[in-house]
Design a protein that fits this description.
Two copies of one chain form a homodimer. Chain A is mainly alpha-helical. Chain A is built from eight helices and no strands. Chains A and B meet through helix 6, helix 7 and helix 8 of A and helix 6, helix 7 and helix 8 of B. The structure holds a DNA duplex.
DNA sequence: CGGTTATGTTGACATCGTCAACAGACTCGC
DNA sequence: GCGAGTCTGTTGACGATGTCAACATAACCG
């Protein structure tokens, strides 16, 4: 990078590619992202991106991984704070998750295997997703200690919670929810049911 | 259709296209389905499909809609039976949902917007998905009457349950669950938490 | 300053979805 | 029974796409 910031040949093309791809995804969906179109928008040639990413899939994986990072940061910000966090804080984490998805539908969709992308052969994506999951586990453990929810296997409980908010977000994004339904009320109902279930003293059987 | 069953020029090409596309999806993913490849496998030319579907997207939509139909049939089969159905039957509906997704991962993925497909401008798909949802509402109402779960807005409750099982199925299919975790136990934990939450007498606030 | 590496461009190719033009096969009214 | 019209399927062609090889240029480092 050159001192003046607009460096090299183009500047920081790698970062520009990531930002532009993310912008295009939320503007017109993943299918609108082509190597040629992104080059056009950035004023570089069609195959410039190949100096920074092995192929198109690698670029999309990087965008998706960045999405997991951003989401984790947001959940961390909500989940932290006052240590003896009560049930309301836990609920807010769930609502924040769904909110992120609704604010970045194209991006969120990409994160969850919209392409042939979400695969074990993409370690970068797995790690970003696992980092998000680790944060969920941490939040669950915090609230187990403070007594907000039952003490069970925190991994299982985190997966259950993840599935619930992810499923709701997915249904909302894909337009599967009838328009007559109030989305906010549905989100609250989901978090309520989930938290009630996690507080129930029953054995998992 | 001709009397001998192998009719017209090819036979029932429309049905063959649907079946072949579904097979290819579960063999090698949606990206492996090309109009030319499907024609090759069926021994017809590349654009034969255009006599039966407006474009590739229409073909995929039809496949996805058929998936919703099959899934609804399976849930209906499990959800019916003894009328005074108890909590175990309700749990089995949830497990059957996840099982369907795990058995047909490519197909299931297609049903939930993998392409630019799951859109309001595809009424056929919306109707099939709504029919599935209607079945879920019916099952919820049955168990509300028999006292298995709390009486709340059955639509909201059906959405909550749908989101929970769909989210879990999605995480499992996309390989987001650590291999160390026992999938069956996770499925049971999810249905337990969900049902506990739906039984809780708390107000949705 | 000269060479090595990093970055970007152009040309080319196979593949894809799709349309227009064409051809064969079935159907139905006379 | 036969010809017109309609279904169904094929071939040729076009533009767009992902990607690679060959080339060009800018930065860096001794």
């Amino acid at each position: 990078m050159t001192p003046d910031g607009s460096a090299y040949h183009h500047g920081d093309l790698r970062a520009a590619l990531l930002a532009e791809a993310a912008a295009m995804i939320d503007e017109a969906g993943t299918s609108s992202v082509t190597m040629r179109a992104i080059g056009r928008r950035l004023g570089v040639s069609r195959s410039a991106a190949y100096r920074h990413f092995a192929d198109k899939s690698a670029l999309l994986v990087a965008v998706a991984a960045a999405g997991f990072d951003r989401l984790r940061d947001r959940l961390e910000a909500v989940g932290a704070g006052a240590p003896g966090a009560g049930i309301e804080r836990l609920r807010q984490v769930g609502e924040e998750y769904v909110r992120f998805a609704l604010e970045n539908p194209g991006h969120y969709r990409l994160m969850y295997g919209k392409e042939a992308v979400t695969r074990e052969d993409r370690p970068e994506l797995r790690e970003a997703a696992n980092a998000l999951f680790d944060e969920l586990v941490r939040i669950v453990q915090t609230h187990q200690r403070s007594g907000t929810i039952e003490r069970r296997d925190p991994h299982l409980q985190a997966y259950v919670a993840w599935g619930a908010v992810h499923g709701l977000a997915s249904l909302l994004i894909e337009g599967q929810i009838l328009t007559a339904v109030d989305a906010d009320e549905l989100i609250r109902q989901t978090t309520s049911t989930l938290l009630d279930g996690m507080r129930a003293g029953r054995r998992p059987t």
